[in-house]
Amino acid sequence: MSSDSKEHPTTSPDHQLPAPTSEQREHQNHKGVRIIVWVVILLIFAVAFFLIMRQHATTAKKPSRRGAGGTTTITTATAQKGDIGVYLDAIGTVTPVHTASITSQVNGIVTAVHYQEGQIVRQGAPLIDIDSRTYRATLLQAQGILERDQNILAQAKMDLVRYRDAWNRNAIPKQTLDDQEKIVLQDEGTVKNDQGAVQFDQVQVDYCHITAPFTGRVGLRLVDPGNVVQSSGGTTLAVVTQIQPITAIFTIAEDNLGQVQPRLHQQAKLPVYAFDRTSLNKIATGSLLTLDNLIDTTTGTVKARALFDNKNGVLFPNEFINTRLLVNTLHDVTLIPSSAVQHNGQESFVYIIQNNVAHVRSVKPGVTDDNTTQVEGINPGDVVADSSFEKLQDNAKVIISKKPIPASTTTGSEAP
C-alpha cells in the first residue's frame, strides 16, 4: 500500500461508526420532549398575552355604560327660586332670668312651710313662717317709747308757743325762749331715733314671714316646721326660679360678629330657635336679647343671651339645647336639595338633565338650611340629578324615575 493510501484511508463497511445505545436514544427523546414542552408553554403565554391586550383594547374602545353609550336610572329635582335663612348654630344652656336662694335674716324656729315642692308660686305668696313673738314684743316696746317721746315733743312745742307769747310781752328773758327752742329740737331728734327703732323692729317681724320675691317655680323642700334657723347660718330655706320668661346663653364665634352686631345696632329682632339634643325637634322660639361685652380669648367666642317666653314650660333651667340664630334672610335665590351638589376636591358641580342627557355644570354653593342649599351657576327651573351619582358622568344618557332609587341600586349595581 502506498503512502497516499495510508494518509487517506478508504472507509469500508467493516470500519463504520458504532450505533447509539438505548440510553443515548432515550436521552435524546427526553431532550426533544422538553424542547416541545417549552415551546408549547411559550406559545400559551404568547396567546394569553395577546388575548389580554386585545381585551384591554376592546374595553377601551367599547362605550362605557356609565358614559354616553349607557343608560342610568335616576331621580331628579327642580331648582326653585325662593328665600333661605342664614343661621348660626351653637350649643346653649337654659338660664333663668331670676333665681333666688332664700335664707333666714332672723334667728328662730320654723313654724310653717306653706309651699309644695315644684309649685308655681306668685310674687308675694307665703313660703315660710318663723316664730316672731320675741320680735313682736321688741316692736311693741319700741312703739311705746316712740309714743312717750312724741308726747314729750308735743309738750315741748306747747311750751315754746307760750314762751314766744311771753317774750312778745317782754315777760321772760330771751335766753329762756332760746332754751325752749333747743329743747324742742332735741325732742324731735329723740322721736326720729324712736321711729328708726320701730322701723327696724318691724323689719325683723316682717323677716319672720317669708314670701316669694317673684313669680316662679319653687324647688324641693329644704326645711321643715320645728327646724331652728340662724341669720348667720347660711341655711337655704327655699329656691325660687323664674321660668316664664326664661333665657338661654350660647356662644358666637368672633368671626361672625360682623353679621350679628350691625343687625343689633339696627334694633332688628333676630329670631333664635331652640332644638333638642338631636337637633331634629324645634322646642321653642325666642329672640336675641344681647351680646356680652367682651370676647373670650381662650375660645375666640362671645356669649349671647336669647329670651324665650316659655309659656309651655318646655325649657328647663340649666338644660343643654341646640340653638339656631337667624342672622339674615336671602331673598329670590336659586335653591336645590343639598344631596344634588357633588364635590370634586375644591370644586362643586351638579348634573343638569336636558333631553334625558346629564351634563356637568359647575356651581358655587352658598347658604345651607336643613336639606336645601343656595347655589350660583344654574337657573330656577333647571332639572338636576338627585341620585345614582356613582354611575353618572358628562353626557351620560339617563332615565328619569318618579320613584326613589333603592339604596342597593344607587350604590352597587348599574341601571339597565
UniProtKB/TrEMBL annotation:
GO cellular component: efflux pump complex
Protein's name according to its UniProt entry: Transport system membrane protein
Domain Multidrug resistance protein MdtA-like beta-barrel: 245-328
Keywords: Cell inner membrane, Cell membrane, Membrane, Transmembrane, Transmembrane helix
Cellular location(s): Cell membrane
Family stated for the protein in its record: Belongs to the membrane fusion protein (MFP) (TC 8.A.1) family.
Signal peptide span: none
Annotated ranges, domain Multidrug resistance protein MdtA-like barrel-sandwich hybrid: 99-240
Species the sequence originates in: Edaphobacter dinghuensis
